[in-house]
Write a structure and sequence with these properties.
The chain has 440 residues and is of the alpha/beta class. The chain contains 13 helices and 16 strands. The strands form four sheets. The chain has a six-stranded antiparallel β-sheet with strand order 10-11-12-13-9-14. The chain has a five-stranded parallel β-sheet with strand order 6-2-1-7-16, covered by helices on one side. It has a three-stranded antiparallel β-sheet with strand order 3-5-4. A hairpin with a 6-residue loop joins strand 12 and strand 13. The longest helix is centred in the last third of the chain and has 21 residues, at 414-434. The structure holds flavin-adenine dinucleotide.
Length: 440
């Protein structure tokens, strides 16, 4: 079947993956990449699919969420993972690559593909034809302005401020209490970690002494976002010993807390999913190093053995508030012929960005063939990531990497048994879905 052409904006991980998927299925693609004509502050070459920082694509162990996601992507024919597998360097159970060979292999695959034409220029306007939009977290200013106009300026962000997420089954529920500030209905799902004055002050002192991630390269010296809701927790703490107790850790409005009069501060944990298997530390966006997050946040009563499904972070990242802007097939509600992919669409990380490129490619293919978009089941890693990005109720969206908290809980004994049940269920669901993905 002959398909009409598609434009892909951005030749990073997501755009390259989408372009190669479409080309494999007979679609003519124009891939527009601004490098090397115009560079981003982080990319160093004109190669497509350049890895801007680490050379690791995270764990390849399929008992981890990142490993499961990669397994599904390989089964879908991911060209990016094929290039990664072909250019692997030893890194234990992680999939690490020779970054130069990896990007060159993908650049060659794109440039030699008869269905793909590569244009090296900056896109400054939203394209008029059916397109996949994958300009990444460092989208050029002109295009960012055009997207902000399309999505609505209040739905486009230049920084992400991410709070850590912990798994529910690693929390000591005996030390936490359920309840909402002033007993409001919507807060019924909160868990609260109460602190007396001594515990609180010890916590703040450790927080201030903890080692922070030092921004390097182009991020060094970047001003932090000004809006108060996005300040890192340690930046608030430094303004005074009691600042947190009057800010994100204020204890007001909690009748019946277990500490009674001794309550001085508390940490709120908000359920991350309907099933309550993971919780977000409300207001705890942070620049602490990951090891330090573990050490200091485990001082919070009830979190002594917390398993961190996602660490907090705060960095420059242009992305859209996808749940409010996109439909479930990653197309813009205001422009259904325009699809978003990559980190720009609210994923976090190399593999997750690539995964959204793969899905956007599939959805565009279905659109061209007049089929319904093949949305993967929520019980698969791909489906869970897509669901998070397109329906997460928290606004603004906190871009996320894949973790088990995004998948519905599994039945099994112990944490490992439950995880294995989730993996087994994902594999079955994926097989059933895959059978109907491509037109026969
Ligand atoms: C500094 C930094 C370090 C990171 N480190 C890691 C890490 O170590 N591990 C990890 O998993 N993730 C990391 N990430 C996050 C993220 O996963 C990567 O940025 C990833 O490359 C995102 O893939 P993408 O395809 O969405 O965007 P990109 O790979 O950035 O691709 C977007 C492409 O669009 C092009 N483009 C932008 N604007 C235009 C325009 N107007 N016209 C035409 N082309 C345009 C860009 O040149 C780029 O090639 C990092 C991000 C940043 C910014």
């Amino acid at each position: 079947m002959k398909h009409s052409g598609v434009t892909v904006v951005g030749g990073g991980l997501a755009g390259t993956e989408a372009a190669l998927l479409l080309a494999r299925n007979g679609v003519d693609v124009t891939l527009v990449e601004m490098r090397p004509e115009r560079m981003t502050p982080a990319h160093a070459t004109g190669d497509l699919a350049e890895l801007v920082c680490s050379n690791s694509l995270r764990s390849d162990d399929t008992s981890t969420a990142a490993g499961l996601l990669k397994e599904e992507m390989r089964r879908l024919g991911s060209a990016v993972l094929a290039a990664a597998d072909g250019n692997r360097v030893p890194a234990g159970t992680a999939l690490a690559v020779d970054r130069t060979a990896f990007s060159r292999a993908l650049t060659r695959a794109v440039e030699q593909n008869p269905h793909i034409r590569v244009e090296r220029r900056e896109v400054t306007q939203i394209p008029g034809e059916i397109s996949i939009f994958a300009p990444g977290p460092l989208v050029s200013d002109a295009l960012a302005a055009a997207v902000a106009e399309l999505a609505g300026p209040e739905r486009f962000f230049f920084f992400d401020a991410i709070a850590p997420i912990v798994s529910a089954d690693s929390l000591d529920m005996e030390r936490l209490f359920r309840g909402s500030r002033y007993g409001s209905e919507e807060g019924g799902d909160y868990l609260n970690a109460p602190m007396d004055r001594e515990t609180y002050e010890r916590f703040v002192k450790e927080l201030l002494a903890a080692e922070q991630f030092v921004p390097h390269g182009f991020e060094a010296g970047q001003p932090l976002p000004l809006f108060p809701g996005c300040q890192p927790i340690e930046a608030i703490a430094i303004t005074g010993l009691q600042s947190l107790a009057h800010g994100p850790m204020r204890p007001t409005g909690f009748a019946g807390n277990p500490l009674g009069e001794r309550l001085h501060a508390l940490v709120q944990l908000r359920a991350e999913n309907e099933t309550g298997t993971s919780f977000n530390l409300v207001g705890f966006q942070t620049r602490l190093k990951q090891g330090e997050q573990k050490r200091v946040f485990r001082m919070i009563p009830g979190l002594e053995r917390a398993e961190f499904l996602r660490f907090g972070s705060l960095h420059r990242n242009s992305y859209i508030d996808s749940p409010r802007v996109l439909s479930k097939d990653l197309s813009f509600r205001r422009r259904p012929d325009l699809f978003a992919a990559g980190q720009f669409a609210g994923a976090e990380g190399y593999v997750e960005s690539t995964a959204l490129g793969l899905l956007a490619g599939l959805f565009v293919l279905a659109r061209l063939e007049g089929r319904e978009p093949p949305i993967p089941p929520d019980t698969t890693a791909l489906g869970a990531l897509l669901r998070y990005v397109t329906t997460c109720p928290t606004s603004p969206l906190e871009p996320s990497n894949i973790h088990f908290g995004l998948l519905p809980p599994g039945r099994g004994s112990g944490r490992l048994g439950k995880r294995q049940a989730v993996v087994n269920r994902a594999r079955d669901a994926f097989s059933g879905w895959l059978a109907g993905v491509f037109r026969k």
